[in-house]
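In response to a reviewer's request, we include the raw inputs and outputs for one of the modeled complexes. The two entities were modeled together in a single run.
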Amino acid sequence: MELTIYGTNALTYPHLHIWDWKIASYLFLGGLTGGALVMSAIANLRKKKTEPHDKACCVKVPLIAPFILLLGMFFIFLDVERKLNSFWFYLTFQPLSPMSWGAWGVGAVIPISFLYGLSTVPDELKHWLVFDFLKKWSKKLNPYMRRLAVINFIMGIFVGIYTGVLLSSFVARPLWNSALLPILFLNSALSTGAALVIIMARKNEVKLFFTKVDIWLILSEITLIALFFYGHYTSSASHRESIMPFFTLSNEFFPYWISILLLSIIFPLVIVLEFLEVKGEHSERLTGFEKFRMNLSALLVLVGGFIIRMALIYAGQLIKMTDKIATKF
Amino acid sequence: MPKYAMVIDQRRCIGCLACIVACKRENHVPEEHYRTRVVEEIDGKAPKLRMELRSELCNHCDNPPCVYNCPTGASYKDKDGTVQINRKKCVGCKACIAACPYDARYINPEHGYADKCTFCQHRLKAGKEPACVATCIGKSRVFGDLDDPSSKVSKLLREYSSWVRLPEAGTHPRVFYIRKQSRPE
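The model returned the following structure tokens for the whole complex.
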């Protein structure tokens, strides 16, 4: 078949060129924030109420979470074409638009997670807070730490899942148009959040607990990725075509098949490293090698999460629903 | 309120591309951007070849994914059934471009808002046909009110079997096509 098109827009032909690394970075950082909020809430809620001096065992992660999300929003800001019009996101609410839900949701998550971060700072660490008014707020918020942790747990789930819902709502883009995508994004968000806690935690027990959590999250992530591709392969012709860049060994599709290759190395490696940590006997203080191994496996999880977002954002714009299929009937 | 629709009679299209030129001229479409295009699809093996000419544009869907995905309400369904863009509200997030199965939208390079075919709404308000319809020398593009049984589009859709692009997307387009071989023998 020979196809000639008069009047094509470079933005959409031969494939979509609208979202790039900026959006992929936002998806990663948004997911990381969501996962960090969920995991830090779990860490802090697991502590017994009878231990007031140890009320918040996870302080650094909730403190930096809103700033990670702000960095992600900065990338979004770079991507929108009419930056000065961004206020329109907050002058309306469109119930059918996941992006509208996201704009309002993220707008709420940033201040509330900031308050949660302040509420976790114990008296002996108040010197971390630069300004006096922050110290005062932190003191006032300390008693509400658990309630804020519960709210941030729910908000973390929201931030982790909504970006996947947003992409999956595009019927025109078969790779994204899957109900599994939001679950995959949420799973990836939780695993990267756990990895961040592992890297930042000082206590042995916290590192080990989240290493155990991460093993299960990585196992479910591998299962979800496999099911995602299987679902596309057994779906419509355009769905099947949309996953082919990941399995076509050619120069043209190098970034896609290499990403699958990397993921299939990274995730099993993480499982092995984390399994060794959990199985190993640890003394009260971690040795340098044990710390290195833990941080390396957590870092690999973060790299894996970033690769997933980059690969899916770019590959999702390669294949679209086509008239070829419709007109053959 | 009328229920506007367009019928593209593929039997009458000669691929002169006057529709593209008229559209660009009428709507001041920026360089290297288009609101309508013509697809020339040649199928088969020489010497037995078959060619299909297909004009494509925004389908002004009854179930428009661009409208549902717009986070600011800039894309909206107007009372006459056409899909329009309120440029003031557009932030240029490009969600509508990703959502459109017909690749009908683009970003205006000068102003940053999303843009597309409006069925020449400014001309409709003045009682005229869209520029591409008015200029079509083969009378391949036909425009009218679906609610009016005596309109040209209603008559054509009654008389001939028609098809729409990507019906599996569930968008219920308002642009209908009549194929060469579709007249009953």
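As requested, we also summarize the result in words. Residues 204-233 of chain A form the longest helix (30 residues). Chain A has eleven helices and one strand.
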